[in-house]
From TrEMBL:
Residue ranges annotated for the GST C-terminal domain, each copy included: 90-212
Enzyme Commission number(s) from the entry: 2.5.1.18
Keyword Transcription in record: no
Keywords carried by this UniProt record: Transferase
Full protein name: glutathione transferase
Top-tier EC class: transferase
SUPFAM superfamilies to which the protein is assigned, alphabetical: GST C-terminal domain-like, Thioredoxin-like
InterPro entries membership: Glutathione-S-Trfase_C-like (IPR010987), Glutathione-S-Trfase_C_sf (IPR036282), Glutathione_S-Trfase (IPR040079), Glutathione_S-Trfase_N (IPR004045), GST_C (IPR004046), GST_C_Tau (IPR045074), Omega/Tau-like (IPR045073), Thioredoxin-like_sf (IPR036249)
Record PANTHER family: GLUTATHIONE S-TRANSFERASE U8, GLUTATHIONE S-TRANSFERASE, GST, SUPERFAMILY, GST DOMAIN CONTAINING
Positions of the GST N-terminal domain: 6-85
GO biological process: glutathione metabolic process
Amino acid sequence: MAANGEEVKLLGVAASTFVCRVQLGLNLKGVEYKFVEQDLENKSEELLKYNPIHKKVPVLVHNERPISESLVILEYIDDTWKVNPFLPAEPYQRAMARFWAKFIDDKVLLASWTSVFSNDEKEREKNIRESDEALKFLEDELKGKFFGGEEIGFVDIAAVYIAFWVPLIQDIGGLQLLTNEKFPKLYNWSQEFLNHPIVKETMPPRDPLFAFFKARYDNLIASE
């Protein structure tokens, strides 16, 4: 749906939850774009040109104008392509959507990741507790089919890590961070979200990611 003469490209890597957010945003809007795979071990001149400050992905480049940081990019996408809006029009609801998206980044991502990928047992236990507490807040906040109501919204896209990556890493670590028994509303949301046709088409294949992160986990455990 990119207009004639527009150039939209996304610099990213397939394993990144932050890149996946942007892919979801573009696909839900029906925006045509070019995906430019990056090697973060050997950063390209293009990545260093478009994101010289952080030197990270994702970077959205729209008509040679780069935007970085996944949540910032999602807001830009929503402001630029008006169809299927992610953010509510009402100012308070809009602010709350931003709040919960940032909550996911601040309170869920690191805690759940460290619950698995840490060789300090006390640190793992601490982060399991923090992850449980954060997911309980989201369980209580979820009022409908999606965080955005009946349609996928800004918080749902931000929470793709919870729907896809948390079950993956909990299987690797033998944990129960997100289960139907602990968080039934959040678990059901994750199934609805992942079964949405556009989400299903966008998500990376699970098996290669599982193998990649399982190898990292095994190396971490072996180093203890």
